[in-house]
Amino acid sequence: MSQRADSSTCPTVGIIGLGYVGLPLAAQFIRGGCRVIGLDIDGRKVAAVNAGRSYIKSVPAAAMAEAVAAGRLTATSDFTCLAEAAAVVICVPTPLTAHREPDLSFIIRTADAMAPHVQRGQLVSLESTTYPGTTEEELVPRLERGSGLRAGLDFHVVYSPEREDPGNPAFSARNIPKVIGGLTPDCLAAGIRLYRHAIQSLVPVSSTRIAEATKLVENIFRCVNIAMVNELKVVFDAMGIDVWEVLDAAKTKPFGFMKFEPGPGLGGHCIPIDPFYLTWKAREFGAQTKFIELAGDINASMPRYVVTRLLEALSDLGKPLRGANILLLGLAYKKNVDDPRESPTFAIWDLLRARQARVQFHDPHIPVAPPMREYPDYAGTPSVPLTAETLAQSDAAVICTAHDAIDYAFVVEHAPLVIDTRNACAATLPDLWRGKVVKA
Asked: What's the pLDDT tens digit per position in 208-219?
């Protein structure tokens, strides 16, 4: 049963990790009347926050500047400041290693650093996506050792997974129902008291493990279904069947079907990563996750499929991929956002560079390619203007992200070849130009 927000006095909240999860959550607690202490090891983020500058599109800079001026928002890299907070929320990354195993190093370092500053009566909430058991097996023991206090007796611990959908105007941190699982019933009650100040609807569950598993199921559901339509795209393409038309027809069924769309691969901080947290943990119990691992393999293969389709299309025009000028449209992992995390565009870029193609990108939301953990070489590369000249000078334009700000009729008019991985050209494509567009 969900719990509704109330308007009681809000405590000081410490938020560790001021990225795409932590900063919007900080903004939401401030809107609820709380004072927020943001903590991040990245000095650039700390400086930006204290100057009232937003580096995330969904968080208005004006609201941040107002909160800083009013003393309701401050940022630091000093963990001792957490002693001032009644509650501490951990929003740090949980990536995968090169071998698709969980990388909990951010959680572990955070727990060890904050443990000496945990106070009696304080609430600690972990929001980072992870496998069932992480809160009890990794976070709690470190907090107890470093603080000398007992979780569930001296301080409270909950797990409450983030649920963000960047670029979705209908849902924000405030109105997405929030799952909360406590180490004990008293911990759960403390978590509900905290999140009532920021979130409209709360969904309490019986344990931290249930909450951890809930987040994984949500993202595995999407991963598996996206893999299915990506595989269908490859199969139907071989048959000369347009998968997007098939899916549009199938979604007219008013029950028993939910439309997912194929693409050049998976992106974002959740869907490409989270399923493998469960596959890793399942091995501890002798359980197999063949379905999940197969879905991951299919989705991971899509950038190579896109490059193959590009190579074939260029070959049909008598052009080699080696030395070709390729323009990638969209660096973000989904349309209308400035978030490049795990974007399949980087994988396509890397494959093209390995084949000695000359690559540029255009993204109206990302003016410069940021540092990426797996693709550090591309950091600092600027987005090129989308002009008739830029398009005409390319041998092919590859639509990786279907941003609404891009005029796809303009792209098709001026580019000699378009590889469309998102069906972005379908609505505005005159019959005259259909031969220039290859769906991939």
From this structure: 999 999 999 999
Residue 331 in contact with residue 343, Cβ under 8 Å?
Answer: yes
Average pLDDT, the chain: 93
Which of 324, 310, 397 minimizes the C-alpha distance to 362?
397
Q: Domain residue spans in the chain?
A: 3-211, 243-439
Nearest Cα to Cα of residue 324 among 377, 427, 396: 396
Catalytic residue among 10, 270, 400, 425: 270
Confirm whether 3-211 and 243-439 share one CATH topology: yes
Instruction: Choose between 168 and 127: higher pLDDT.
Output: 127
The Cα 182–Cα 191 span in angstroms is 7
**Positive/negative CA dihedral, 222, 157, 200, 57:** negative
Q: Which ranges in 42-184 belong to alpha helices (H)?
A: 43-50, 61-69, 105-114, 134, 140-147
Handedness of CA 225, 227, 229, 235 (dihedral sign): negative
CATH topology of domain 3-211: Rossmann fold (3.40.50)
Active site residue 270: yes
Strands of the 418-420 sheet, one edge to the other: 358-362, 325-329, 396-399, 418-420, 437-439
DSSP letter, residue 370: P
Q: What pLDDT shows up at residue 5?
A: 38
Which helix H or strand E contains 74, and what residues bound it? strand 73-76
The pairing of beta strand 123-126 with beta strand 87-90: parallel
CATH class entry, domain 243-439: alpha beta
Beta-bridge partners for 343 = none
C-alpha 337/C-alpha 166 separation (Å) is 6
Separation of first and last alpha carbons in the chain: 44
Residue that the structure tokens 């904050």 belong to = 114
What does pTM read for this prediction?
Answer: 0.90
Biggest alpha carbon distance in the chain? 73
Give the per-residue pLDDT at 168: 77
User: Between 106 and 168, whose confidence is greater?
Assistant: 106
